[in-house]
Write a structure and sequence with these properties.
There is one protein chain. By secondary structure, the chain is mainly alpha-helical. The chain has a two-stranded antiparallel sheet with strand order 1-2. The protein is globular, with a radius of gyration of 15 Å.
């Protein structure tokens, strides 16, 4: 129940805008043809950005126990290219939003989510979104 309330408040108070920024980056990547491999990641992370509470981002290698193309050297190269063209700007947007949220006591959980998303924005290749089990 708290996850749903947190996600609703997050979406209304700025998470929706950041999710749209991720989707805009995905559209630009897709239209450029060269960026199609990054476009899918943008849409997945954009959906995660809309409703981040109750979910975590983990390495696909640690989740599956084996490496794939995104968790090896090509994934590293993809992350470097991503950082230069889009990652820095998306991370900057999340950091600015985190600073704005951290001004109030109620906004601190949202600021923490923005900082997690800023870290994700810097190097998203080789990561996946998983649902966090509820803590009772």
């Amino acid at each position: 129940m708290l996850t749903r309330i947190g996600n609703f408040l997050w979406f209304v108070l700025g998470g929706g805008i950041m999710g749209l920024a991720w989707w805009l980056a995905g559209v630009v990547a897709f239209v450029s043809i060269v960026g199609i491999p990054w476009a899918r990641a943008c849409f997945v992370i954009g959906r995660f950005t809309f409703f981040p509470f109750g979910k975590d981002v983990v390495s696909r290698a640690s989740l599956s126990g084996r490496h794939d193309i995104g968790t090896g050297p090509l994934g590293f190269l993809g992350n470097v290219i991503w950082f230069v063209f889009a990652g820095f700007w998306l991370a900057l947007g999340h950091v600015i939003a985190a600073l704005a949220d951290a001004v109030t006591l109620i906004g601190i959980p949202f600021a923490i989510q923005h900082l997690k998303l800023a870290g994700l924005a810097l190097a998203p290749i080789g990561l996946t979104v998983v649902r966090r089990p509820p803590v009772w």
